[in-house]
Amino acid sequence: MGFSSTQLGLEENAISQVDDQATLESIKKNLTPERPIAVQVKNACKTYGRGPPILENLNMTVPRGTIYGLLGASGCGKTTILSSIVGLKKLDSGDIWVYGARPGSKESGIPGKTIGYMPQDIALYQKFTIEEILNYFGGIYGMTKSDVTARMDFLMSFLDLPDCTRRIDSLSGGQQRRVSLAVSLIHSPALVILDEPTVGVDPLLRENIWTYLVDLVSRRRTTVIITTHYIDEAKNSHTVGLMRNGKLLVEQAPKDLLEEHQADLLEDIVLKLCRNEVKKPTDEVSEAIQEMSFYTQQQISGQSSNGKNGASNAVVGLKFKPRSPDDDNIVMQQRNRSQSIRRRQSVIETVNNSFARQSDKVFSLVRRNFLTLFRNPIFVVGLLIMPTFQTVLFNYIVGREPINKRMGVVNGDFENRTSYCADREPGCFKEGLSCDYMNRFGNNILWDNFETADEAFESVKSGAVKGFMEFPDNFTTHMKNRALHRNYADNETLVGSTINFHMDFSDYLMNVFLLNNIFKNYLAFAKGLVEDCGGDSRLMDTPLKYNAIYGSLDSRNAEYMQPPQILLIMFLLPMTVAVTYIWDKKSGTLDRTMVAGVDYFHVVISLLVTEGLLMIIELILCLATLIFVFNFKVQGSLILCFALGILTGICGLSFGFLFGVMCDHEIEVLVWSLFVYLPTMVSSGSTPREGIEPWAKLVTGYLPITKPAESIRSIVTRGWGITHPLVYPGFVVLLVWISLCWILSGFVYRMRR
Questions:
Q1: 361 in a domain, yes or no?
Q2: 3-state DSSP call for residue 125?
Q3: Quick count: other Cβ atoms within 10 Å of Cβ 330?
Q4: Counting Cβ atoms within 10 Å, is residue 348 exposed (0-12), middle (13-18) or buried (19+)?
Q5: Residues 202 and 269 in one domain
Q6: Does residue 414 share a domain with residue 390?
Q7: What confidence tens digit (pLDDT) does each residue in 426-446 have?
Q8: What is the pLDDT of residues 200-224, one digit of tens each?
Q9: How far apart are CA 692 and CA 703, in angstroms?
């Protein structure tokens, strides 16, 4: 595809309104004829862990309005120094100045729209279309829709991109790299940093890209730093820097390098310098590298060089021995002027950080979050209905009375229980009282008949029945004698009227239900016997009467456990944001977004908006299911319950974001999430806290769900308000955990960057 000056001129006009005038004016103020430097790195050192230095006293100077070609093998530190320039990494020691200010300051414009950054990785959201990815970054840069469209039309044509509705994951590797390049150029930045942009690009398009960059530099005074593995294409640069093992071997104009080393190709010079670096660290070439470069000599002497490549602004050598007083004065002027500008621009900074500008970034992030979610509709549906599904399962599984339990019976009251019970008519102490008692259980218990106790024992051991009931011989006769003789009943009568139960008490929960059933049904059996004999059944009641102040005597276990269960699921689901955050980090899209000007505050607000909306929908569906399907009664304020649920979700989101910032891999997030969730689940009220050991009660008392669980029970079952001393602590605990997590997240975020 051809590329003409006419096209460049049209493109120049189309983007003229895209520039951020405030940023450009700031850059212009930082630059003077005495200091035409865009990027300066001095004595940069960087080490990861205990490994060898990645950068070792590296010095680099990039004049404004030039192309700086950075060459070097993989692992030599190119990406590290570029990441430090764009503000993604911090040096262990040394200084970096961008337009006379440090990266991260408002004067430098980095991170922000001053810079266009293309990382070595693709670093694009794979499920976005080309149009969506360009609109996303354009929105972060504060561009209007028409600005983005104008730039998009040009870049689509220039980079020979496919239809803008194509998704990134459907493109070839070369096409994805071209889209990545388009993202870095969408806003016409003053400084462009490209990490191997021409890898996988066909030679014709590679030539067009270089032609565009050269014209961009000459027309708009844009500064370009580019790394490449194609050594020969670096001849288009105004300055070439060759890195090896964290050091800069040389930094000169390509033309001067060819003349100095009497070579025809840059590749020959690179090989020569690398060999000299390994074999002869003290020979002429290495000594010459320590000297001041061509640009420094020209600047000191006041001369200017107008080379064929447009290298009118030469470059300070990275490794040099002598330094003139003028150089030191220039550096001091840069620092003093940067501090002065920072003070003078405080009002401008306040205006630039107005709500409208910040909201553009937040809106772009929120739109990105929703696009990422809804590109996977099955996941979204599952996420939204998960609390409701959990609630339905909980109500159909937990706390229900067991039915069809199998129990054995050894009945000595009569020989043939089945036929006898079927023919028996109720009456006062008629034969077969054992039938009256067993019939009280209805279908809650299914009876298996055994001839002997030994057979029943074997059935219990095999797991066929949960236990068995044994009626003594002549049970009805002994019951009648017990009623007649009362205090004068002999031992044979007392033993013969006693029903023996042999149970498998290893199944605790089942036996809780069974023993309760056995007691209630025996009481009903005794009262029925008294009524059949013409007596007052109240004589058989226990002299205890229970009255419910809150709740009811018929309350089920599920009604006690359901409110904390809602909080637990609302706490757990938002923690999945940690996995999404790690995916964002691993793919490089998070770093790229940060370089575009997004900071911690924007990410937090966008997550609160996105996840908050999902929480609201989840909680509405969950509460509606409880109230309208399961007739769940809320005695207190439904708004308070809703607010507590949302706060719990935000607390889970806060933990998830903290884990995402702390961890680099999904498995680490899983471990941390379980570390927090499991103790929280155990202490959320499944057992009375009065039975907990004092030390455990103290430790678990302030876990994220412990006090909120008590709060939501008090609201739901007792109708208490937020001013009650058992209600408001739940809100306070959640707010404290939320604040603590965001503070720790911010601290870890800054430490790790």
A1: no
A2: coil
A3: 18
A4: middle
A5: yes
A6: no
A7: 778 888 888 888 888 888 888
A8: 777 877 888 888 888 888 888 899 9
A9: 15
